[in-house]
Amino acid sequence: MEAESKIIRFIQTWLIVYASLTYCFFTGKRVSPGKLRLLSISPVVVLFLLLPLRITSIHSVGATSFFIAWLATFKLLLFAFDKGPLASDPSISLACFCAAASLPIKITPKLNNNNIDEESAPPSSKPARWYVVRAAATAVVVKLYAFQDLFHPTAMTFIKCFHIYLALELILAVARAAARAGLGIELEPQFNDLHRTASLREFWGRRWNLMVTGILRPTVYEPVMSRSSGLLGRANAQRFAVMVTFGVSAAMHELIDYYLNRLHPTGKITAFFMLHGACVVAETTVRRRLKGKWPVPRTVSAILTIWFVLSTASWLFVPELFRGGIEARMYEEYVAVGEFIESVTSGTIFRSFHPTAFMHYCFKQLLSF
């Protein structure tokens, strides 16, 4: 009964999301960009910040809070001024608008292959077997939680770091696959060969969770940079903009942590992001002053960068995410998914499923909200 209630709330929440995005889509057609459009869609932004509180399932609230409370709200703020991935395009359909707003995807523009440099080109898509391996690795990691008493606490923390990465990979891969299958659009991958990272700046800017980077740059970094350059000078303004961007990212991660654990923040997640922001600033400053002197081999810098990210995450970030007993709840949900897959393969769900009845059920749940 409890599992059914969670599913009902999840369905209700996403029906509300798409109803709200439909309102934003038609509002954009009728209201000019600027303060009036911002005022018109601001209730939706507030609603999206509250909706994850209705969900208690770990994986559902984690994905919903990331997709809606963070990415969608930032995209809508940009949309209010006709910027970002939702900028007015007469050819965009309602379905594409809702997908781009509610999923961690970005429609890849058609690029001229003769005019693409290595840094601007989107990373290549991974083959299907690559995600199968990730799914198998996730299953192994989840199984390790049953034996965590046998592991050293530090080793278990690194396993949790790896689990977070795998979970993000799979969630984002499912979102990309759904958008491609449903809308026929090609999408940019969200990660770009993390093992090739040669610096913290490269890790956060061009390797890790590219959708977050792409949404923070126009909403936070560029406005802060442009407004502070006159007062601080370009170099200091850039440092200040980097710190503000990491600060906003920290605040959003604290919010997601609250959605997951329903515990008040301790500030450690903020400390993690501010530490990395300060290190990115320091790294950039040192590189500029050295001007290419004493270069560090890329393999060495990659190892040092990944080690620093993992060690600081295991110290400040990961323990905060897992402080509410998430492991046990995640394991229960994985078991439930396994039972669901078993029931699907046995044909019991397919025999009782009818599309019209399912849509009627969804509409009924929306009205009962």
From TrEMBL:
Predominant location category: membrane
Record keyword Disulfide bond present: no
GO biological process, one term: lipid metabolic process
Segments passing through the bilayer: 6-26, 38-55, 61-80, 158-179, 298-318
Membrane topology: Multi-pass membrane protein
UniProt keyword terms in alphabetical order: Acyltransferase, Lipid metabolism, Membrane, Transferase, Transmembrane, Transmembrane helix
Pfam families: MBOAT_2 (PF13813)
Domain Wax synthase, residue spans: 188-274
UniProt-annotated location(s): Membrane
UniProt GO MF annotations: O-acyltransferase activity
This protein's GO CC annotations: membrane
InterPro entries associated with the record: Wax_synthase (IPR044851), Wax_synthase_dom (IPR032805), Wax_synthase_Magnoliopsida (IPR017088)
Family in the record: Belongs to the wax synthase family.
Protein name from the UniProt record: Wax synthase domain-containing protein
Biological source species: Kalanchoe fedtschenkoi (Lavender scallops)
